[in-house]
Amino acid sequence: MNPKWNGQFSCFDLVARTGDRIGQPVHTVVSLGDVGIGADDFVVMAGPCAVESERQLLSTAEAVAEAGARILRGGAYKPRSSPYSFQGLGVEGLKILRKAREQTGLAIITEVMSEEDVEVIAEYADIMQVGTRSMENYALLEVLGSCGRPVLLKRGMTSTLEEFLCAAQILAMAGNPQIILCERGIRTFETATRNTLDIAAVPVLKTVSHLPVIVDPSHAAGVRSIVPALARAAVAVGADGLLIEVHPCPEKALSDGNQSLNFTEFRDLMDDLQPYLAIPQEKREFRPRLVVGGAD
User: What is the reported pLDDT for 50?
Assistant: First the structure.
């Protein structure tokens, strides 16, 4: 282990994997019914970038559930770079997500953008997602500390891992230890892809933190053809799960169609993951403890 990591990350005592946690579980497992994120099972969350209609979401929910996904993703409130882009259906979208859960049994993850929306979204969602633009929205993190729901925290697109764990620490200090870290790619000088997947972030985070770590290959790639390859890489380096965008007809999607898989592509991706998932977990990860305030 890099000795620098002790001083760099051990100060985040609620989320770091330090010697002070002796007697506590090595891994934090975020449980949703029979789904345990961070446990032995590899958990895939899949669905459209945005909830566009009841028909679109219900057909997607059925398709991803049949392919093996355990959690349905879908945005009811969408942070967009352009004011002319689709902004989401709001509460109507949340109601459609709830109907999809009732019909398929899939748990629901959806994004929360503002502290004012936390209470209403928590009524519908099983997991609250904090997007890349909101990672350092500390007012939002404070409110999510008492929302009573697990939080998936996405890495900021220009954030270091230290800043990422700092945000997780703030959320934990606010009273919510049920945190899932999500590597979704960072902004670099490369323009061939939407972002650059920091694949090394997964083993680093799994070494220095006890929190589960998943990967979003859709936003990292921005190009659907390479999403499966990035998904396989995530499994190989020890990620606990994936967050993938799936749409009935990506070419007609109101948001992020270029990086969304259709139903056949998603089934193929899930099938292609099986040989990688067969690799014993202990061979895919390395998790020594940090030394609080010291070096190796």
Answer: 95
> Residue 100 in contact with residue 106, Cβ under 8 Å?
yes
Q: What is the pLDDT of residues 88-106, one digit of tens each?
A: 789 999 999 999 999 999 9
Q: Name the token pair of 267.
A: 């089934």
Residue among 222, 217, 245, 218 at smallest CA distance from 57: 245
Q: Is 60 left (phi over 0), alpha (psi -120 to 50) or beta?
A: alpha
| Residue-level length of the chain | 296
Q: What tokens appear for 195 in the block?
A: 């972002």
Backbone angles phi, psi at 148, to 5 degrees: 80, 15
The C-alpha angle 2, 171, 70, rounded to 5 degrees, equals 85
Residue 170, beta-bridge partner list: none
pLDDT of residue 10: 84
Contact 196, 188 (CB under 8 A): yes
Query: Can you say how many angstroms the Cα of residue 119 is from the centroid of all Cα atoms in its chain?
Result: 21
The confidence score (pLDDT) of residue 192 equals 96
Q: Looking at 203-277, which runs of residues are DSSP E strands?
A: 213-215, 241-245
| Residue indicated by tokens 């089934």 | 267
What Å distances lie between residue 99 and 78, 107, 144, CA to CA? 20, 11, 24
Residue 55's alpha-carbon distances to 37, 60, 61, 125, 279, in angstroms, are 29, 8, 10, 19, 38
Identify the structural domains of the chain with CATH numbers, from first to last.
Answer: 4-77+88-282 (3.20.20.70)
- Would you state the structure tokens that stand for residue 89, as one six-digit string? 């259906």
- Cα angle 213, 20, 170 (rounded to 5 degrees) comes to 50
Determine the Cα–Cα distance for residues 82 and 93; give it in Å rounded to an integer.
20
pLDDT tens per residue, range 38-87: 998 999 999 999 999 999 999 999 999 999 999 999 999 866 556 656 66
